[in-house]
């Protein structure tokens, strides 16, 4: 079945969908507005100070497995009590979404499409009270992450504990916490359905590697919230929900994606320390490309328009006019597919790139550079 990817921006009472066809699944970002340039956006003014108590701790141990339904229920309730105070509602003039308290200095991590073009925000804490003012620290659209900071953080902030993405396992029970459709402090449950997914929001938008796929319901307004294991550790930031283009882009239940905690800690830490992402650690071929259509008017590969001098592709012998059709075992039909294939790699990895050149297929080994 063909699936395509979109964001589904959410306002308080209206959900809009803007489809962007690509390979993979039809994905809806669960808050924010579509159409941001894929680049890092830095707030004006000096960078915020580094947190004294970062939300990157992984010290919370695994609890013993429950032996009866009552024990499992009690664990669910304990996790909700422990983690929900760390999940906030973020409101702009246009929309609302979710965020996670990162440290005791008032930094909150969320999705870049939640903050969109706004510069100031109202933040509602799960513990209640009047909305708090916040400002943008930085947004990094390439990986759909952003950090905002409370202008007057209260003493009673509850920073989240972030888990180790490498320890996430398929079948693990997880809870998704956020503010779907403006219903504040909502919790849904499911399992980890898959790990290591590379998913794109569409051509020209974020392509994110190593995502956690989950069956926990992710709806508009959940973006930027918390995907939590039963030890109370945030293992991901819910970002995209699937929609099925064969049924009028209706929701595809049980298919959602979260940015892994390791990516969140790395990029959020850079944004807090430097006011921007200075080391994205994203793999690149060193080429400019475009999608080429076949005789049936369907995507048939990615044409190399330009090759960066002395870059990875240049060193491997790729040249303008080559048609990239495969990276390792992944068939490449369009630009989004190429981005997804590269998102699963790191700079320095060696990949086999198959191209069509002059009617023949050739294969080159490329040592990936950094974007």
Automatic annotation (TrEMBL):
Residues 34-71 are annotated as: Disordered. Keywords: Hydrolase, Protease, Signal. One of its GO terms (biological process) is proteolysis. Gene3D superfamilies: 2.30.42.10, 2.40.10.120. Residues 41-58 have a biased composition (Low complexity). PROSITE patterns: PDZ (PS50106), PROKAR_LIPOPROTEIN (PS51257). InterPro entries: Chloro_Bact_Ser_Proteases, PDZ, PDZ_sf, Peptidase_S1_PA, Peptidase_S1C. One of its GO terms (molecular function) is serine-type endopeptidase activity. The keyword Aminoacyl-tRNA synthetase does not apply. Residues 274-335 form the PDZ domain. Residues 1-28 form the signal peptide. This is Trypsin-like peptidase domain-containing protein. It comes from Streptomyces chumphonensis.
């Amino acid at each position: 079945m063909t699936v395509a990817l979109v964001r589904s921006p959410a306002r308080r009472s209206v959900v809009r969908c803007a489809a962007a066809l690509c390979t993979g699944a039809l994905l809806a970002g669960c808050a924010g507005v579509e159409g941001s340039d894929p680049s890092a956006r830095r707030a004006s003014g000096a960078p915020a100070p580094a947190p004294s108590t970062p939300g990157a701790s992984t010290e919370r141990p695994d609890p013993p497995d429950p032996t009866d339904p009552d024990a499992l229920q009690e664990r669910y309730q304990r996790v909700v009590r422990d983690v929900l105070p760390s999940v906030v509602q973020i409101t702009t003039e246009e929309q609302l979404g979710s965020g996670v308290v990162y440290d005791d200095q008032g930094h909150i991590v969320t999705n870049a499409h939640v903050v969109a073009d706004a510069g100031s925000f109202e933040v509602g804490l799960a513990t209640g009270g009047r909305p708090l003012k916040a400002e943008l620290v930085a947004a990094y659209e390439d990986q759909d992450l952003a950090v905002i900071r409370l202008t007057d953080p209260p003493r009673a902030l509850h920073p989240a504990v972030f888990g180790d993405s490498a320890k996430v396992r398929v079948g693990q029970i997880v809870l998704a916490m956020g503010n779907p459709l403006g219903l504040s402090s909502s919790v849904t449950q499911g399992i980890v359905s898959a790990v290591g997914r590379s998913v794109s929001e569409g051509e020209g938008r974020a392509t994110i590697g190593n995502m956690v796929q989950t069956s926990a319901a992710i709806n508009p307004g959940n973006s930027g919230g918390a995907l939590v294991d039963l030890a109370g550790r945030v293992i991901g930031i819910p970002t995209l929900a699937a929609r099925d283009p064969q049924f009028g882009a209706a929701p595809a239940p049980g298919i959602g994606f979260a940015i892994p905690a390791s990516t969140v800690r790395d990029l959020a830490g850079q944004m807090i320390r430097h006011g921007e992402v200075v080391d994205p650690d994203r793999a690149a071929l060193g080429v400019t490309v475009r999608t080429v259509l076949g005789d049936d008017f369907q995507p048939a590969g990615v044409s190399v328009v330009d090759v960066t001098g002395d870059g990875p592709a240049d060193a491997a012998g790729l040249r303008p006019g080559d048609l990239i059709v495969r990276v390792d075992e992944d068939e490449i039909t369009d630009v989004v597919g190429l981005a997804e294939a590269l998102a699963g790699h790191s700079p320095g990895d060696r990949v086999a790139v198959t191209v069509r050149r002059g009617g023949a297929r050739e294969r080159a080994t490329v040592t990936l550079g950094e974007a």
